[in-house]
């Protein structure tokens, strides 16, 4: 093998599919058949996973810390709700895309504010935008239904063929399909030169500019895309639950999202998916211990994660899966490598 | 005309309160470049301590205020020494996660101990009601807040400008590395200032129960306000945050009075516009380098 | 004789402090030009203005006759002005392969490509392989940069700048901090740069300057003290005074 093809081979090291990934997705699909009475909670996890994947794109890859990612989730949720309620776009898949685009427009418009300044300014601006939208939704309660939310949303069958059933089966497989398609897209993107340039920007913006990367343009692009993803997640929320209320914008939602991603690990796309499962399990466990005060334990988890160190934690967590994968694959195929965040 | 003056008065009181609540955060951000989203939790702690002392144990209000300060400062120094100091060198993301975690814990803990409803501190009769000055309604309680917070602000300014500690603190905020080169014990200066800032927040929390409302969600509800004060005001001096507090207080009161339907809309818009216009804050250098 | 890089009356102030004073430099095409000066002379500030990290208060910067004063950093790179940093500015989590791959992709205009995977373009791969080989990085191409020994990181720092195929290259103390044993590699690489690349070397090490440069500008307190061929500068009493003064302080 000459040096050039060697380089090509190694450059695609992470981009190639590993056995472990196929196993992961088959396992997720299998859940749809193994637990037919848990569709609602599983759908909830898929939505959260998509939402977390969206945050991963900006936080894990581009290093943008956001405290207001719920803004896009909320816009997607209300857009989907309004489209269905007023019969503007009846077909769910189409409505989903329209809702995602609505969030995307907001993402693009606000990206210019977010790329300016340092972490703190970004925190403030993202948080401010989410709060602003919440205030707006409250103010225009004639449109949004105020604190009661949108009432009486009725979803039409998916692609005109598959109706949403009361057990949530259709909703689950629908959400899974959407998640998988968007995952494929994200996976493609993060392994492209564009995706790599985001990691470069996160690592060292000064050097990134010094090799000719248009830093701002790249950040705007990924922020806009992440907004689209979050909007889709929000739209899925409305479509599968037939509710959209003010709390879609809530700070807690943005903060929980960070926890989801942090539990799962940032910068390798599966973090959001794994984190969503673990987060809901944790929530379940804590709610049974102290129904009202589970937030305390969530807070404790955050504190402990940070004190122990996120990277160390993920090394422990991925130790067993990686061991198995190595056994199965028989070579140094490491499926899950969260990137360091520093 | 008089309603304008009354609103202005209320706004000033509100703004000064915000300043006392938030100025500790300016130091945390300016000196250690540490994003402490849990700052409101210290304020809440002070507020609840004061409430328990006054309502349940019958302490006089003015005797309970210093204790609100002391207890929050004590919690502050314990947490700083035990936890915070390990995180100064970490990424902002870690700091954000950690302090959100602390905030959630404090919210749930206070909810568990004291219940989730809003609490009121029994005020002495002398502080209730209002009187008229040339037709302008002056609330006694708000007047007291202006007096106390005004004195505190002047005191702070004097300490910073005139004392040895003040000059050390200013040097440390200006350039921590150079300061430690000059033999200033930066971690010590910081620990002390952090505790003091928490104490002020605690005092502010006790004073604000009447005006802002005190319930377990206080740290989350007012987090953005504290952050606004610091980011808009900058952290190179206390004048910046002070002016930012006044601006925010007056703006918020006026916004709620004249365009009640727009609610908090005014404030958030103002903040975003200012941060776009001057990413480093209205008054001086950036808070986070 | 064509001028590759030129500054006209460059002026930069921090607060009240003038760190660049009315600086007019002309660097000829293909030159090996060195910019020297004692500590605090403002050499790095000049570099930062040339590359666009800092904006001058007044004055112009011309690259091959075209005004680039108002261009952002990345556009100057695409116009053929590239640099290395005095303190390594690398991507700790990325491998040398990825680091160089990015620089090559950006230059060839594939940087914004979000669909094709990294490593699927043979022209890019070929160039990466070439650079990795030239800079002795082939054996560590899959190691995270943060784990590399300092000498290798220094080589990578230069390789990244070269990957942009600059016509004008600014080297900011390329051998700074490199242990003696690895110094040779760096110097050999710097010495073997093709002659059509114009090099501006900012350096402290006088041996390196006098063995490498064919023209030297001396910067003192942000202003140009003198300029000329090495022999002339070495004899200049003013330069001697400046450097002797500094030597005395350093000792």
Task: Summarize the structure in short.
With 342 residues, chain A is an all-alpha fold.
Pattern of helices and strands of chain B? HHHHEEHHHHHHH
- The gyration radius over C-alpha positions of chain B equals 19 Å
List how many beta strands of chain A DSSP finds.
0
Q: Which two chains have the most extensive interface, and how many residues on each?
A: A-B, 46 and 48 residues
Q: Helix coverage percent of residues of chain B?
A: over 70%
- Report mean pLDDT of chain A, rounded to a whole number: 89
How does the SSE layout of this entry go?
The complex is a heterotrimer of chains A (342), B (289) and C (251).
Chain A: H1 3-11, H2 19-34, H3 39-61, H4 70-85, H5 92-114, H6 119-139, H7 141-144, H8 169-190, H9 193-203, H10 205-210, H11 215-241, H12 251-264, H13 270-289, H14 294-308, H15 310-329
Helix pairs in contact in A: 3-8, 3-11, 3-12, 3-13, 4-5, 4-6, 4-11, 5-11, 8-11, 9-11, 12-13, 13-14
Chain B: H1 2-32, H2 39-56, H3 61-82, H4 92-114, E1 130-133, E2 136-139, H5 140-162, H6 164-174, H7 176-181, H8 186-208, H9 218-233, H10 239-258, H11 265-277
Antiparallel strand pairs in B: 1-2
Helix pairs in contact in B: 1-5, 1-6, 1-8, 1-9, 1-10, 2-3, 2-8, 2-9, 3-8, 5-6, 6-8, 9-10
Chain C: E1 3-14, E2 17-28, E3 32-36, H1 43-51, E4 58-63, E5 66-67, H2 73-78, E6 81-83, H3 96-107, H4 122-134, H5 150-163, E7 168-172, H6 180-191, E8 198-202, H7 206-212, E9 215-220, E10 223-228, H8 230-235, H9 237-250
Parallel strand pairs in C: 3-8, 3-9, 6-7, 7-8
Antiparallel strand pairs in C: 1-2, 1-4, 4-5, 9-10
